[in-house]
Amino acid sequence: MYPLFEFPTIGGGMIIALIATFHILPCHLATGGFWMAYFLERRGHADKNQELLDYIKHFALMILIFCFVLGSITGVGIWFASTIISPRAISGLIHTYVWGWATEWVFFIIEIVAIYTYYYTFGKVAPKTHMRIGLIYAWAAWISMVIITGILAFMMTPGKWLETGGFFDGFFNPTYWPQLFYRTMMMLAISGMFAAVMAGFMKDGKTQNYVVKTAGRWGLAGMVLGALFAVWYYFKLPATAHEILASIPYAAMMFKVSLVIGAVMAIYFALLIFGQTPLAHPVVAIPMVFVLFVGIGGGESVREFSRRPYLMPGYMYSNQIIAHDFEVKGIKSEVARFQKDGFLQSNYFVPADWRNINEKNYLKAGMLLTKANCVICHTMEADGRSSLPRLIERIGITAAADLAAYLKTIGDDYPYMPAFAGNDVERRAAAAYMVSIVPNNEAEPPTPAWVLNGDE
Ligand code: HEC
């Protein structure tokens, strides 16, 4: 294990989720936008429509700015935030997928070269050549999605990888194809949204009308087909994921938010197809981008919740503790080891005078154990997000002995929480700390003797 990184009140998971949601909009646009640019540019040349060609030039410039500034900064942001919050997960992923990422970066470079060439050769090279450059970009961008989806889907459903540890067994996992098709449709829908926003800045007339209708068609097709693939995706998720979506109110709410917003977006695109050009006006279209953003946030939260309590299902828990033996790689479950030998003794970063629990340090050691086990999903502050003290208050436990007993069963009783990784003394020290942070807890605090010797 590495030292812990804690984000008070907000929680590290929320930080990653926020950055990831900001990332999805530009990155799906970056992958889908040029299929649309290619389609419209062909039409522009065929009709010799200079207004349409000017529109595409702007469209490409805005993608260049929006995606290659916001998209890259947030992409790096995800790496940065995940590396400090879950270094072991990133390490695990790199050990398995370093060549996947290397391949991905080759395609990123092709994208970057292609988009700059496309923009700066606009009107300067033969139309056919120019459109080919656009196509090179479109393919390279989509292939980068083909690659990253394998890694993302692996983190949901690693499939046969758990038995073989093989690259392609994890890559082509049970949710790979539904997720790839779903994301491909989303990229078309997001491109439709972007095309509509850009069309809002055109002067009224036939060309604007044509662009708005095309944006509506792409958007609607993306939403409808995307919904079908999402259903397929949903049914490929393991039973625990379905249980979580049904039992955790927040996850269930996010699921509903994403469904409702999907429907709202579909209606919006349908209205565009029927020639409601005023709906592309920035006053309407820009708030619609915000709505779409919230919908994406909802969908991503659902994805995150579905893999609880794991970071890599079947292998590593969200708190980075290795949950089960991984035979082909000779890796042993840490939960079992920490429950037997103790967490504090087994981890290098633990301060030397906290390694053996005694009368003086048990609350501090308990804090460390609580954070190591729980802080990835719960905050320690009473007013924090998914606040641990509040949740303990909610289940009505006040005495440390009851909480210690509760911690013993937590992994079995909840489909979405890991088992407590620590030995008996550590579990009691953690319980002593946890009851001490519950606001207005009137129960008698536990005695050091109970923590050290227990009588459960
Ligand atoms: C993988 C993420 C995750 C980890 C790690 C985790 N929890 Fe939870 N926990 C959840 C979720 C999700 C909920 C449901 C929250 C809700 O209902 O709002 C929850 C709910 C709870 C509840 C309320 C249960 C109930 O029946 O209402 C308690 C108490 C709790 N957690 C304690 C802990 C403790 C103690 C730890 C560390 C030993 C821990 N959790 C670790 C995800 C986690």
From the structure above, extract its key features.
456 residues, mainly alpha, Formate dehydrogenase/DMSO reductase fold, Cytochrome Bc1 Complex, Chain D, domain 2, 2 domains, two-stranded antiparallel ribbon, 2 strands, 71% helix, 1% strand, binds heme C
Structural notes for this entry:
The chain is mainly α. It folds into two domains: 12-317, Formate dehydrogenase/DMSO reductase fold, CATH 1.20.1630; 333-453, Cytochrome Bc1 Complex, Chain D, domain 2. 71% of the residues lie in helices and 1% in strands. It is built from 18 helices and two strands. A two-stranded antiparallel sheet has the order 1-2. Strand 1 and strand 2 form a beta hairpin. Helix 1 (12-47) packs across helix 11. The chain is elongated. The model has no long low-confidence stretch (mean pLDDT 94). It binds heme C (HEC). The site of heme C has 24 residues, from helix 10, helix 14, helix 15 and helix 16.
